[in-house]
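Meet my pick.
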Amino acid sequence: MSQRKTVWFQVEEHETISDCIERMKAEGYMPAGRKEEPLFEERDGKYVPIRQMIQLKGVLADSE
């Protein structure tokens, strides 16, 4: 089964960006981009940011 050329990896809640990059490398990908989105929660009728969701774009590493 072949791997996809591009995959988005989400940095988990209790994981550092470095940990996520190591996980990417273990799966054969290297980082090529990053995007962030705020995660909101509704409290007392208002939306309050609770954390930042970070995703890293992984591209298939060349196998040499």
Q: What stands out?
A: The chain has a mean pLDDT of 91.
